[in-house]
């Protein structure tokens, strides 16, 4: 390594994540009609993780998992709008300890306060001490608002929220132009989470509703059975438009890094907290173990540390992000962090270990369609299989994703699959035991872990 300050300086980290964007919602991931040139370039110039998995496909629990590198049964945020533990190390507290300037912009949603409440400086901000332009939770993208740094006064802006948030990110990056310390900046966008129609017309106009092709497992829903706001063609168009808007914002941030000559020494991450069914299996939203819900994007670019573009097909999960970033940055994580350091995989080291499976879970019931109630469930996503059980400990949704990539054939009762089901059931039982997860229904989990007590 070269001597001097430049050789010793740790890399910057720009960590950007969407809300409710599935792994396949990029052209580079197999959706031909979606317009994502920036993300496609990232997939070609960095590391493209093709089996990135949301450990808990709903907003708050998985956000807390990404920020703390722990599972919901550890960070205790198992249900939306409950409080994450503030005594755990987080991505920001670890960055602070290593001399980073930390900033957070956008949707927070790991706090139990009312969604509109101010989150004061201190432990509830999980170590984001230097710059704060965040709002706990809302999804009106034409009503941008946030609390700035230490002030309890709400800031309201005109325009489209991701554009406002990107502007704040560019200002933060400009402020690092002469800084001696590295930075960690997290940008948390609200789209493409519904309401899907809240997107600038210029992005809608990039799509022709009648020319969009659906995934093979999309079920056509008659218009008369839906609220007009959820008409299937328009919903899909608007969702794609929201993703394209984020692609545009990502391009602006990458351009700024280039202008500031920071690109080579900045780890750029793009991911999401969970996916969106977007009419696959006739469903919308999340909370189910189908691939469209648990599969999420993960693109990592770091020219100095990851000079060779590659694809990684291992089942890396959200819980692994913190450890992996620490590994890329040359740091270490405390024992409380439960994720695996996958940086050797991203670097292409020949002896690198990979996760055998990603643990997936939903701790509460969910209902979108009356004929498909979603119970509490736990499961595993391996390279090949998706295996889930409900609280009666019976197989629920089981898929061979190699032979059935669109998950059209449930193997939960398939006689020929009894052997692999038994193997996966044993693996799941071992994982539950290691996590101290009693696998109870929602009320039972709340009582067991004293959630809301």
* Rg, Å, rounded: 21 Å
| H-E string | HEHEHHHEEEEHEHHEHEEHHEEEEEEHH
Which class best fits the helix and strand makeup? Answer: alpha/beta
Instruction: Measure the end-to-end span.
Output: 52 Å
Present the secondary structure layout.
Blueprint: H1 5-8, E1 12-19, H2 37-45, E2 47-49, H3 59-68, H4 72-75, H5 91-97, E3 101-107, E4 131-135, E5 145-148, E6 154-156, H6 161-175, E7 183-192, H7 201-204, H8 232-259, E8 266-272, H9 291-294, E9 298-301, E10 310-312, H10 321-329, H11 343-347, E11 357-362, E12 366-369, E13 372-374, E14 377-382, E15 385-390, E16 395-400, H12 418-435, H13 442-448
Parallel strand pairs: 1-7, 1-8, 2-10, 3-4, 3-7
Antiparallel strand pairs: 2-9, 4-5, 5-6, 8-9, 11-14, 12-13, 14-15, 15-16
Helix pairs in contact: 6-8
What does this structure look like?
- With 453 residues, this protein is of the alpha/beta class.
- The protein contains 13 helices and 16 strands.
- Strands 6-5-4-3-7-1-8-9-2-10 form a ten-stranded mixed sheet, sandwiched between helices.
- The longest helix has 28 residues.
Give the key terms.
alpha/beta; disordered N terminus
Brief account:
With 453 residues, this protein is α/β, with parallel strands linked by helices. It has 13 helices and 16 strands.
């Amino acid at each position: 390594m070269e001597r001097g300050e430049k050789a010793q300086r740790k890399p910057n980290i720009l960590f950007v994540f969407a809300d409710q964007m599935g792994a396949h919602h990029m052209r580079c991931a197999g959706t031909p009609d979606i317009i994502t040139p920036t993300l496609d370039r990232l997939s070609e110039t960095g590391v493209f993780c093709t089996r990135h998995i949301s450990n808990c496909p709903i907003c708050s629990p998985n956000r807390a998992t990404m920020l703390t590198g722990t599972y919901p049964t550890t960070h205790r945020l198992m249900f939306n709008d409950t409080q994450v533990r503030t005594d755990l190390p987080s991505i920001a507290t670890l960055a602070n300890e290593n001399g980073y300037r930390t900033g957070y912009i956008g949707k927070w949603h790991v706090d139990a306060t009312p969604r509109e409440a101010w989150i004061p400086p201190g432990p509830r901000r999980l170590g984001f001490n230097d710059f704060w332009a965040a709002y706990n939770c809302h999804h009106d993208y034409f009503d941008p608002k946030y609390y700035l740094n230490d002030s309890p006064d709400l800031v309201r802006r005109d325009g489209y929220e991701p554009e406002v948030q990107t502007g704040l990110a560019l200002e933060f990056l400009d402020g690092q132009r002469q800084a001696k310390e590295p930075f960690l900046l997290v940008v948390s966008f609200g789209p493409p989470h519904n309401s899907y129609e809240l997107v600038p017309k210029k992005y809608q106009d990039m799509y022709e509703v009648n020319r969009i092709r659906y995934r093979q497992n999309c079920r056509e829903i008659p218009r008369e059975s839906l609220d007009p706001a959820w008409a299937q063609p328009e919903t899909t168009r608007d969702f794609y438009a929201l993703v394209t808007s984020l692609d545009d914002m990502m391009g602006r941030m990458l351009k700024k890094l280039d202008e500031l000559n920071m690109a080579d020494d900045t780890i750029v991450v793009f991911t999401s907290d969970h996916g969106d069914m977007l009419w696959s299996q006739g469903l919308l939203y999340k909370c189910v173990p189908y691939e469209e819900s648990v599969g999420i994007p993960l693109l990592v670019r770091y020219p100095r540390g990851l000079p060779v573009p590659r694809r990684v097909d291992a089942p890396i999960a959200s819980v692994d992000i913190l450890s992996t970033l620490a590994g890329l940055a040359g740091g270490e994580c405390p024992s409380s962090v439960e994720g695996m350091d996958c940086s050797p995989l991203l670097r292409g080291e020949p002896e690198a270990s990979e996760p055998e499976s990603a643990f997936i879970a939903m701790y509460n019931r969910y209902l979108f369609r009356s004929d498909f109630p979603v119970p509490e469930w736990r499961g595993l996503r391996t390279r090949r299989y998706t295996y889930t059980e409900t609280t009666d400990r019976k197989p629920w949704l089981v898929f061979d994703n190699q032979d059935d990539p669109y998950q059209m054939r449930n193997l939960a009762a398939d006689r020929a699959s009894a052997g692999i089901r038994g193997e996966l059931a044993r693996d799941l039982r071992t994982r539950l035991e290691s996590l101290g997860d009693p696998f109870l229904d929602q009320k039972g989990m709340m009582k067991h872990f004293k959630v809301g007590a």
